[in-house]
Design brief:
mainly beta, globular
């Protein structure tokens, strides 16, 4: 079976095609909402900005900074990885993971794409070429490098002595954290057509919880690589292939014995961690990671509405609809505010109580594709052009 990964227009551009028009040629263009007028209640302070290579350009990539012990780690698609001082953005070390092809030839790009994560003295990052790298945090030298079962489009996750990677062909792999050896591989199955993105696993009590392109959420026992339970939260329905997309590309959240998961053409679903039994579900879809905090769920839906719901049944608390189709990033919670970036390079700050805007700022003309990252007292975000910014409030 031929597997196809697609990027829906609207996930990375200013228009999207809806209904049967994606296949019939009739285009229903949904225009980006104009920039809302916001009277800033405060002005976030830019502490520093630093270039990390050439960024990702117009390619889809989940690259975003990682952070640990006062150091920020960031990468570009070509293969540049840098360690930056979190206080002032100054470079501590730099490595190039691109492949040398000859003295007079350009290096072959590493196509880094899986996001940056940090744990146990190592920086982990994956690539579209199916490589997983573990770099020493001290100097960026390669501790180990392993060939995964497919493209690594989500960030590697280190837990329980393993590095978990979820590949584009539906494989969840557990790699030995010390040397990168493949300990086990679980086939999560993929449909013929799916979105270009994969769910990063969440871990708790020796289990990895991960979403799949087949509309299911799976719990996998990490010490053995065995599936404990699977639960479908999105059922392929509709007249077109786009309508039938059922991907669960968001990272599940585990809190107080409950797994919260979100599908593209499906539901926001709360499940029992031990059994996978559905506790409640709400019809709302997204490809963005969500936030669960203080009895609320904050998410960006398919049309770029920012929505707050209660963890008790998924009841809507508020909805902010003034950023429709602005191709928002996933939201992040920073100093009591929801912050999202958009494809025009703006950061939008939203009150968690009522969903009203409290601040807005133009940051980078290349735009944002991946979510901001909270690093202690700072908010980090990487632009598509490769610049990394640090803000405080």
């Amino acid at each position: 079976m031929e597997l196809r990964k697609i990027l829906l227009p609207g996930l990375i551009s200013v228009t999207l095609l809806s209904g049967c028009s994606w296949f019939s040629g009739e285009e229903d263009v949904v225009k980006m909402s104009p920039l809302p007028k916001v009277e800033n209640q405060f002005t976030p302070e830019k502490v520093w900005s630093t270039s990390v290579g050439d960024g990702v350009g117009d390619y889809y990539s989940n690259l975003h900074p990682g952070w640990s012990d006062s150091t920020v780690y960031a990468a570009d698609r070509f293969g540049i990885v840098k360690a930056l001082n979190a206080g002032d953005g100054k470079e501590q070390w730099k490595v190039d993971l691109s492949e040398k092809t000859g003295f007079f030839s350009k290096n072959l790009p590493a196509l880094l794409s899986g996001g940056v994560s940090v744990d146990g003295g190592h920086v982990y990052i994956g690539s579209e070429r199916g490589q997983v790298y573990a770099l020493n945090t001290s100097d960026g030298s390669v501790a180990w490098q392993t060939k995964a079962a497919g493209e690594v489009l989500s960030r590697p996750v280190a837990s329980d002595g393993l590095v978990l990677v979820h590949t584009s062909n539906g494989m969840l792999q557990g790699l030995d954290q010390t040397n990168g050896a493949v300990k086990w591989t679980v086939n999560l199955d993929v449909p013929a057509l799916s979105l270009r993105g994969e769910s990063a696993p969440a871990t708790a009590f020796g289990a990895a919880i991960v979403g799949g392109d087949n509309g299911r959420v799976s719990a996998v026992m990490m010490n053995q690589g065995q599936i404990i339970w699977q639960q479908r939260i999105s059922q392929p329905t509709g007249a077109t292939e786009i309508d039938r997309l059922a991907d669960v590309d968001t990272t599940p959240i585990i809190l107080d014995g409950v797994v919260y998961a979100l599908a593209y053409n499906g539901n926001l679903t709360a499940m029992d961690l031990r059994s996978g039994q559905i506790l409640w579900k709400r019809e709302i879809g997204s490809v963005h990671d969500m936030i669960v905090d203080a009895g609320h769920i904050y998410l960006v839906d398919q049309d770029d509405r920012v929505v707050a719901l209660s963890t008790d049944g998924g009841v809507t608390v508020w909805r902010q609809s003034d950023l429709l189709h602005r191709n928002l990033t996933s939201p992040v919670l920073y100093n009591g505010y929801i912050v999202v970036g958009d494809s025009e390079g703006y950061l939008h700050w939203i009150n968690t109580t009522d969903g009203r805007f409290v601040a807005q700022q133009k940051v980078d003309s290349s735009g944002f594709q991946t979510e901001p990252v909270v690093a202690s007292d700072k908010l980090l975000i990487q632009a598509k052009g490769g610049e990394v910014y640090a803000f405080t409030r």
